[in-house]
Design goal:
Elements lengths: L14 E2 L2 E2 L17 H4 L7 H9 L6 H9 L5 H10 L4 E2 L5 H4 L6 H10 L6 H9 L5 H8 L2 E2 L2 E2 L5 H5 L6 H9 L6 H8 L5 H8 L2 E2 L3
Length: 213
Amino acid sequence: MKRIPVGLLSLGVLVLSGVAIAQVGTNDAVLNPNLTSAEEISTVPHISAAIAAAIIEGRPYLSATDLDAKLRGAPLSDEQRAEVYVTLFVPINLNTASDEELQLVPGAGRRMAHEFDEYRPWEGGMARFRREIGKYVDDEEVARLEQYVFVPMDLNSASSEDLHTIPGVGDRMVHEFEEYRPYVNMAQFRREMGKYVDDAEVARLERYFVIKQ
């Protein structure tokens, strides 16, 4: 089959046994640097056309710290870089993100980064995130924070609704994910998905999955 370009952002709600359990946080305002055009990136505060072009050139960003490393080479202060992340951010894996990565989440700080780490593993997806983090902040702040995070899903059992929550994934790629089940390891995933998208996109997609034995 022909290679396909990265799709447009497609967010949804997961349905498992009739219960809605989102795996990827609902995102209404934060741009993903792996998917967003240079023109859109240039609308972010402090991002010039030259910096936007450099961000595009550095794809894929497999962690928030990867993007941070790229922007540390740009003419931005620490405060400006933090302001950039409010609207341009690489979603973090709640189960594996480093302490440094957790603290890059806008407005999280050390205390909230500690809470993110405290509740690992995040079984139950974003429903549990909302419940646990809702003990410390109000619903509005929980909704803001969830734009920056995700919980990886099982590649073999995730529903079509699950798969559609992955940023940049549409119907065609969901079909390919399901077509090659069962997956025995990530090497198989890389090999099969590499028939449709390039290595950079395979690496970006892989972040959203685990294979449960």
